[in-house]
Amino acid sequence: MPPLALPRLGQPKAPSILQRIILRARVRRDMRRLSDLPDYLLDDVGLTRSDVRRALRGSRYDD
User: Fold this and answer.
1) 22 located within any domain
2) In a domain? residue 26
3) CB–CB of 34/41 below 8 Å?
4) Please, are residues 60 and 24 in contact by the beta-carbon 8 Å criterion?
5) Residue 30 within a domain
6) Is the pLDDT of residue 7 over 70?
7) pLDDT at 18
């Protein structure tokens, strides 16, 4: 009996321009929501106000 062959996945596709625009809009929305949260809620998820500010100042291309 021959061994099972896994399908070849090939190279992952680069995101389209539309996908990148949508991703950036979602990131901006999420960052805005985080910056609106009170400190006690940020603390609940393990973030500080300075973490949010640092992320807002960071590169747009960071994940």
Assistant:
1) yes
2) yes
3) no
4) yes
5) yes
6) no
7) 92
Tokens 């590169």, residue located: 59
Q: What is the pTM of this model?
A: 0.57
Q: How many CA atoms lie within 13 A of 8 on its CB side?
A: 2
Task: Look up the domain containing 42 and give its range.
Answer: 17-57
Task: Tell me, yes or no, whether 4 lies in a domain.
Answer: no
State the total domains in the chain.
Answer: 1
d(CA 19, CA 41) in angstroms, rounded, equals: 30
CA atoms within 13 A on the CB side of 41: 7
10 phi and psi, to 5 degrees? 70, -170
**Contact by Cβ (8 Å): 52, 34:** yes
Give alpha helix (H) positions in 1-63: 17-36, 39-44, 49-57
Cβ atoms of 46 and 22 within 8 Å: the answer is no
